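Limitations
The structure tokens in this dataset are predictions for the assembled complex, not deposited experimental models. Users should treat interface geometry with appropriate caution, especially where small molecules or nucleic acid strands are included. An illustrative entry is reproduced here so readers can see what is and is not provided.
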Amino acid sequence: MGEVALVTGASRGIGAAIARSLADAGYSVAVNYARSADLAEAVVSEITMSGGTAIAVQADVSDADAVAGMFATVTDELGPVTVLVNNAGITDDGLLLRMGVDQWDHVLSTNLRSVYLCTKTALKPMLRARSGRIISVSSISGIAGNPGQSNYSASKAGVIGFTKSIAKEVGSRGITVNAVAPGFIATDMTNALGEAVTEGVAKQISLGRLGQPEEVASVVRYLASEDASYITGQTLVVDGGLAL
Ligand code: NAD
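Predicted assembly:
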């Protein structure tokens, strides 16, 4: 069997762009979604209509049983996962003094527990094969912090620490573990902030504009490729010069 990429939260936004990009590069792609079956099926159709191979697979990636079921389905239908992209993520912003414990737990569990669950499951066959790629989508908020996003920033900083630790654990087995840290990318997540906020943000970005999902996807595709064989434990910032 060939290379199999599993992309979490791939029904839209950055995840959908990563799924399309990896399919273009010849990977068989599993498009994970939590609720939007129709959007995930649309991504799959787009890939198959351009000659690629893809399936949609439902799972809430913060749920251990659902993650186990998702990997079993992907392995049966496409083969063992050789590239895992931990992309699924949410925001639920608020200043700390107004942030409820549910708000904290939901973001941490969707953005960080999911990375632990999916990476642990993906690693078992990768360790046997002595090769594999784990790529997680962190955020510039996890590096620089952002007021109103203590839960989100903590989860994304957690992804970076996790990435470095696992890179050290599995490097001797030929597996690389990296992260990307996008700045402001034009997706539903940032559209929710409204036009006034995004225009203000664009002024702080060296390149003077928000990024496109495809501009993150191309970096993930690079990290998945043989060209990135000697890069591990790194976080590549893709922010158009926002945090300089
Ligand atoms: P998005 O909201 O368009 O996409 C997020 C995807 O994750 C959605 O498809 C959603 O259904 C899925 N998802 C959410 N919870 C899930 C769960 N429990 N199980 C499975 N899937 C789940 O947002 P996006 O901008 O495309 O974000 C993708 C990733 O990039 C996220 O991790 C986000 O934190 C990160 N990121 C985005 C930006 C940005 O500016 N858009 C910046 C930095 C980092």
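Some entries come with short summary sentences. For this one: The mean pLDDT is 97.
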